[in-house]
């Protein structure tokens, strides 16, 4: 790569910093992956810091013998339901915040952020009481609703900034040329907002996928993956814990990988 | 193609009256420009006609159809936006075709019309590109093509040339005007650029603070401004103004006296103080000679500043406390500080009532 005169040292420092940051993030992931597939005898062998023989046994035990496959599906279901509900509610709210001036608009925004001030622990007990009364306790829908409450403020604020970033002229042009406001939104604004919305959905997915506290309090039988792992894998041998870590990380990584292109577009960088 | 009639239109934003009792009729096929400084309500008026905003009072008619509260899509209008608003997620072809697709026009006809418009605006080779691959001028052409393919009743344009560079702007001015004459579509065009307005319009409506100050042809608003605002807004350099008190047919300013011929007496009757206006090009340096047959009145002042512009020169002349700008050909050379005799063209003198700011002649 060509470098300006006198900037060689600067480039070396930048690369060094980049490598450091990447290592910081990748090293634990690498450790998890290696240990998750290591043959237990090699894992416990002190002479082999890096295992050489690999097996699917650990993941298999976790998923099928300990039955984590069911909680994985539960987690997926909850995450997707959370995305659906929080977008169904958050999208129109974000749109109105971006497009319309109304009294109390700023107060409303502040209130939305204010919601996030309540510690989950404080909310969990009243929530389970209410859930018991209305029959939502121990259901995945209940967990999804709780996760929606957690992610909704975020969805409202981020979608409103996404919509605010799309010039209203595009939509008005649509209306002038024969669309109603709703059609203009669906056929002009929504396709333009899609990258940003995809990025927002990643955050919601990961938030729901990782959330362990509410999920363990609200559900006993239909556990989500983090809640399940917390209970069943805690006392299991190390390789199983690493397998659990792997199973936790993998779907999130796949999801991010698919939506990565959009995520980066939101931040104004384009990948070639 | 329709006649557009606005009756007593009022639009308020909170306490601000953006459009204040506007009455205007635009004839079938006419090109009318709404001209005024920023914030004068011209764009809001256009948006009321488009239906993107709804008025608080008044009516809008397309021919005899009351469209005041119809949504934009039921008005059969098109609009060219200042930002062009060419949809970024569609190719040029799809951008032009989209309004027709919405109107469920048959595929073949859509194709024919897209090609016709592309030909007309010379963007044929751009049809497969995306907007981010286009220059400002090209986007503007796409926006115009999109606006004309649906054969609108009314074509609305909101400062469509303001984002182009000077040369392209001049070129597009004449092209848009020719296109409008060819299509014979009723057109309402908003701009703050007086040259653009005067060059393009059949009639110009000059607006200020939400009101229409004068409607007329370029010749009318330039030569017979109805009030002080229009006189000052139209023309560059600006018209010279000075205040004068009246006695009989004599005007007395703080620095000089003008004794006007008898025929001004009738106009000046009952007036105490008036504002006198004269354009820089209607003042002649006496030594250059005065065009034959022009009735003038002479004054003398001192050259205070000179702005050479190449083809013309603007001389700032001080007569006592009063500063007059005089436009002379660039070949006329003067020096700073010297005395200069000038002659004001009496036929081009404008006199305004100081209180009402309306033109007396």
Mind telling me the CATH class of the largest domain in chain A?
Mainly Alpha
Quick one: biggest sheet of chain B?
6 strands, mixed
How many extended strands of chain B? 20
Query: Which class do the helix and strand fractions of chain B yield?
Result: alpha+beta
Shape designation of chain A: globular
Number of domains of chain A: 2
The CATH superfamily label of the largest domain in chain A reads MetI-like
What is the mean pLDDT of chain B? 93
The total of helices of chain B stands at: 9
Describe this structure in words.
The complex is a heterodimer of chains A (272) and B (361). Chain A is mostly helical and 272 residues long. Chain A folds into two domains: 5-36; 67-271, MetI-like fold, CATH 1.10.3720. Helix content of chain A is 77%, strand content 0%. Chain A contains twelve helices and no strands. Chain A has helices spanning 8-37, 40-43, 57-65, 68-99, 105-115, 120-134, 140-164, 168-176, 181-210, 213-218, 225-233, 238-266. The model of chain A is unreliable at 267-272 (pLDDT under 50). With 361 residues, chain B is an alpha+beta fold. Helix content of chain B is 24%, strand content 34%. In chain B, helix 2 runs parallel beside helix 4. Classes of the chains: A mainly alpha (272), B alpha+beta (361). At the A-B interface, helix 8 and helix 9 of A face strand 6 and helix 2 of B.
């Amino acid at each position: 790569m060509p470098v300006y005169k006198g900037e060689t040292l600067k480039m070396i420092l930048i690369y060094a910093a980049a490598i450091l940051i990447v290592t910081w993030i990748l090293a634990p992931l690498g450790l998890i992956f290696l240990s998750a597939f290591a043959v237990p005898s090699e894992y416990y062998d002190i002479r082999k810091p890096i295992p050489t023989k690999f097996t699917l046994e650990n993941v298999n035990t976790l998923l099928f013998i300990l039955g984590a496959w069911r909680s994985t599906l539960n987690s997926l279901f909850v995450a997707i339901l959370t995305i659906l509900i929080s977008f169904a509610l958050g999208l129109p709210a974000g749109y109105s915040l971006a497009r319309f001036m109304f009294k109390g608009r700023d107060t409303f925004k502040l209130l939305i952020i204010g919601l996030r001030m309540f510690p989950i622990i404080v909310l969990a007990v009243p929530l389970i009481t209410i859930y018991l009364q209305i029959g939502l306790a121990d259901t995945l829908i209940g967990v999804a609703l709780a996760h929606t409450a957690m992610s909704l403020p975020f969805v409202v604020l981020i979608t409103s900034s996404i919509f605010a970033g799309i010039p209203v002229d595009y939509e008005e042009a649509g209306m002038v040329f024969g669309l109603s406001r709703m059609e203009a939104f669906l056929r002009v604004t929504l396709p333009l907002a899609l990258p940003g919305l995809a990025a927002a959905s990643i955050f919601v997915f990961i938030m729901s996928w990782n959330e362990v506290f509410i999920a363990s309090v609200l559900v006993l039988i239909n556990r989500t993956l983090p809640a399940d792992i917390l209970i069943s894998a805690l006392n299991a041998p190390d390789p199983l814990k690493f397998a659990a870590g792997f199973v936790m990380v993998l779907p999130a990584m796949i999801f991010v990988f698919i939506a990565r292109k959009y995520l980066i577009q939101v931040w104004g960088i384009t990948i070639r | 193609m329709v006649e557009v009639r606005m009756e007593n239109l009022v639009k308020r934003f909170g306490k601000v009256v953006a459009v204040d009792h506007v009455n205007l009729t635009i004839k079938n096929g006419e090109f009318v420009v709404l001209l005024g400084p920023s914030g004068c309500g011209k764009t809001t008026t256009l948006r009321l006609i488009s239906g993107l905003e709804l008025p608080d009072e008044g009516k809008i008619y397309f021919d005899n159809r009351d469209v005041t509260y119809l949504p934009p899509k039921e008005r059969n209008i098109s609009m060219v936006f200042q930002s062009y608003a060419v949809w970024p997620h569609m190719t040029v072809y799809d951008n032009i075709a989209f309004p027709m697709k919405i109107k469920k026009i048959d595929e073949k006809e859509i194709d024919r019309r897209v090609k016709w418009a592309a030909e007309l605006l010379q963007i044929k080779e751009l049809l497969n590109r995306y907007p981010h691959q286009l220059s400002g001028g090209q986007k503007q052409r796409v926006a115009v093509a999109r606006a004309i393919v649906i054969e609108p009743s009314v074509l609305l344009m909101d400062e469509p040339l303001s984002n182009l560079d000077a040369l392209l702007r001049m070129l597009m001015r004449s092209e848009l005007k020719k296109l409008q004459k060819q299509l014979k579509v009723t057109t309402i065009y908003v701009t703050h650029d007086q040259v653009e307005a005067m060059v393009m319009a059949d009639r110009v409506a000059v607006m200020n603070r939400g009101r229409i100050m004068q409607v007329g042809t370029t010749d009318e608003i330039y030569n017979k401004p109805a009030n002080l605002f229009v006189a000052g807004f139209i023309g560059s350099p600006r018209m010279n103004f000075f205040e004068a008190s009246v006695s009989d047919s004599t005007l007395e300013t703080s620095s000089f006296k003008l004794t006007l011929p008898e025929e001004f007496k009738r106009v000046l009757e009952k007036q105490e103080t008036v504002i006198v206006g004269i354009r820089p090009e209607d003042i002649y340096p006496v030594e250059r000679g005065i065009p034959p047959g022009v009735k003038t009145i002479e004054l003398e002042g001192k050259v205070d500043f000179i702005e050479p512009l190449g083809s013309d020169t603007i001389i700032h002349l001080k007569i006592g406390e009063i500063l007059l700008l005089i436009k002379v050909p660039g070949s006329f050379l003067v020096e700073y500080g010297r005395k200069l005799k000038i002659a004001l063209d009496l036929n081009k003198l404008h006199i305004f009532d100081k209180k009402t700011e309306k033109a007396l002649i």
